[in-house]
Design a protein that fits this description.
The protein has about 220 residues and is an all-alpha fold. The protein has a single domain, classed as Up-down Bundle (Rhopdopsin 7-helix transmembrane proteins), CATH 1.20.1070. Helix 4 packs across helix 5 and helix 7 runs antiparallel to helix 8. The longest helix is centred in the middle third of the chain and has 29 residues.
Length: about 220
């Protein structure tokens, strides 16, 4: 029987050798980095002087990132891919709004409007990049990572904008943005290094990105009394 669209298997990374559940054990297990990030941030949240429910949503999304990515690297179907990317996309949207509202201190309506504009522009980037990459290189050298470039740029730009009035936040965001660029590099080169490294480098994206999300949450969390 022909598989439905959502049940179609996906083989996108070096480590996967066949469609079986446990074909990517390292990629699957390193999603624990996201779960640990969420748990660590949750413990800090519980000790904070006030309950910040927007940050609680971000912590829950971080946990969901780990679960969704685990599903994708085990079941590896189209629906599992959606479970992987949706929590990440929601985290980016919510954190960008938080940055506009709390770090740049825009009015609520302006923070919502800028977030909507950012999301609209971000959705255009993968298609524009693919058209350019295919014309120039004949393939995608970023291995599907172009959609994360706006998030990396946002961290660095927002960090630079708030550096003067909130130096600790500004320095942190710029540094985390740099770490995210390194993390994206691991994601992008995975299929390029298969010959030399059959395990690939995608698992390093999980480990580095787990740290990125924890650090972003740490910046947003109220300091303990």
């Amino acid at each position: 029987m022909e598989r439905s669209f959502w049940q179609q298997p996906i083989d996108a990374y070096c480590e996967r050798a066949d469609p079986s559940f446990w074909s990517e054990p390292v990629n699957a297990l390193t999603n624990g980095a996201f779960l640990l990030a969420a748990i660590a941030a949750g413990l800090i949240w519980l000790r904070a002087p006030r309950r910040d429910w927007l940050v609680a949503v971000l912590i829950a999304l971080t946990f969901a990132v780990g679960i969704g990515s685990f599903l994708f690297h085990t079941i590896a179907t189209r629906w599992a891919a959606l479970a992987d990317v949706l929590p990440i996309a929601l985290f980016i949207i919510v954190y960008f709004f938080l940055a506009m509202w709390r770090y740049l201190e825009l009015p609520l309506w302006a923070a919502l409007a800028v977030t909507a504009l950012f999301q609209g522009l971000s959705m255009m980037v993968p298609g524009l990049w693919l058209d350019f990459a295919r014309a120039q290189f004949g393939y995608d050298p970023l291995n599907g990572s172009a959609g994360y470039l706006p998030a990396a740029a946002a961290m660095i730009v927002v960090g630079a904008l708030v550096w003067r009035c909130k130096p600790a936040v500004g320095r942190a965001l710029v540094g985390i943005g740099g770490l995210f660029v390194v993390s994206l590099t691991f994601r992008s080169i995975d299929t390029l290094v298969c010959g030399a490294l059959p395990l690939g480098t995608h698992f390093l994206w999980h480990l580095a990105n787990g740290l990125v999300l924890f650090l972003l949450l740490r910046v947003a969390l109220p300091r303990p009394a």
